[in-house]
Amino acid sequence: MTSENASTETTREDIPLKSGAKHTKWYDCNDECFNGPKSINSAFGALTILITVALLVQIYYGDYQVVPHGSVATDSLECSKIGTQILKRGGNAMDATIASAFCLAVVAPHLTSLDAEGQLMVYNHRTRSAPTVIDFSSSNILPNKIPRLVVGLAYIHQQYGTIPWKELIEPSANLARKGYIVSKMLAQAVNRANAQDLFGRLEPGQLLRHDVLANTLLIIGNITEKELYSYIDSTNQPIKSQAVKSTFHKYNVYVPSLESIGPVLLVNLREIEEFNFTDVNVGTTKGIIQTTLKTFDEFNVTAKFHEGTSTNVAIIDLNENYVSLVMGMYNLFGSKKSTSYGYVLNVKNKEKPCSRIPIILADEQYICGKRMVFGANGIAQATQIVSNLIIGNKNATEGIEAPRFYLLENSTVAVEAFHSPKFHVQLLDYLNETHKKTILMPEPYYSSNIVEMLNDELSSHSDSRGGGIASRF
């Protein structure tokens, strides 16, 4: 515990969220819980007393301070904390996303880099208008001007940023300079991809510094915003579009549309909804596997989409801006070639779009019902998470940490060999009997990080598969 003021102290997801004054909202989530003249009269009387007390307190003590609340979930505690620090300084969810994304390009080079691609979806629950999608994975972005991820984040800053560009990059530059602790996932990825030439043989827990990358980040941060935006022209501009929406068990499901696997996910969810499942169990999971296999075949998913690496940032800020950013490269460590600027190059000749997908869920009936922001890599992962959260009514942690199956080429079904909890033995027996191509999936696994709101309560969780911890204040 630090000596910071308790009202602004950052809390981690493994520490209970502190209570504090809530920001005055345009709606009151408790309104949905009261009805009838007696309740109204009682509430009015209580409100009168509270206002009187509040006025007396204010006269005696002076103006009170409104305590904002927000949360950032990423694959790294350092990156989650960098995001919440930006929120605490008055930045919005997009500012925090930019800062967190640069941090991930430092600490997770097996998943992302300054040359990574991605999609961002932003939704404001106050307006409830369709989310906006910014896609910087298309072929019209020319990374020979500035790296692809920088183009995407610069465009996001141009459209939504409120904190100076330089201040969003400096924390990551400092982290690259002082070093960070190598995660188990990064060490596993080096061995799995035979990428020892990039960083040597890494061991979990060792300190890794990137001095050259730190210098590059400082150079990028010192680019004036006018010059930065000049790189975003008709030949080097991300695609901005509107998300598409479907419903699933009385929840609105928002996903990207353009050249995205999102619409395929919506089809898969509609097929599953016809079963009228009321819980997630062995029988439900069997149905989800069979339906998803059928969707894979009908839409020729493995031929049309490539499952590259994936890491995601999920954020909800004070003003109920919800942001999901998914980004990654074609393979672990991309092309396995490092530039003289200290970042790994992605594979250039990409023939098909990636299956990464940002997702936002919101209760269709109640404005203060559950709202969830997360990312996934492929419709199998996304379908299981949506089903866990909505059909299974699991909380953020349980919904994300539940066991997962993977669908690979030639209808191969894979299950996680090392993640816990595991599937029930009955389901494993079923897979071994009916799917002769069932295999065990080795680590590392791609994660899915989530921020969730119910009424005014905020919760968040970083997937243990990615090794991160969410941060909130």
Strand residue content: 15-25%
CATH superfamily of the largest domain: Gamma-glutamyltranspeptidase, small (S) subunit
The major sheet is characterized as:
8 strands, antiparallel
Low-confidence stretches: 1-9, 14-24, 32-41, 50-68
Distance between the termini: 14 Å
The portion of residues assigned to helices is: 25-40%
Name some characteristics of this structure.
eight-stranded antiparallel β-sheet; disordered N terminus; alpha+beta; 473 residues; 19 strands; Glutamine Phosphoribosylpyrophosphate, subunit 1, domain 1; transmembrane
Describe the structure.
This protein is an alpha+beta fold and 473 residues long. It has helices at residues 37-61, 77-88, 93-107, 148-160, 165-178, 184-192, 196-199, 211-221, 225-230, 262-273, 282-298, 301-304, 379-390, 396-401, 425-434; strands spanning 11-12, 71-73, 117-124, 132-135, 180-181, 207-208, 239-242, 244-248, 251-255, 311-316, 321-328, 356-363, 371-377, 405-407, 413-416, 439-441, 450-454, 457-461, 471-472. The strands form four sheets. Strands 1-19-2-10-11-3-4-7 form an eight-stranded antiparallel beta sheet. Strands 8-9-12-13-17-18 form a six-stranded antiparallel beta sheet. Helix 15 (425-434) links the parallel strand 15 and strand 16. InterPro entries: GGT_peptidase (IPR000101), GGT_ssub_C (IPR043137), Ntn_hydrolases_N (IPR029055). The chain crosses the membrane at residues 43-61. Keywords: Membrane, Transmembrane, Transmembrane helix.
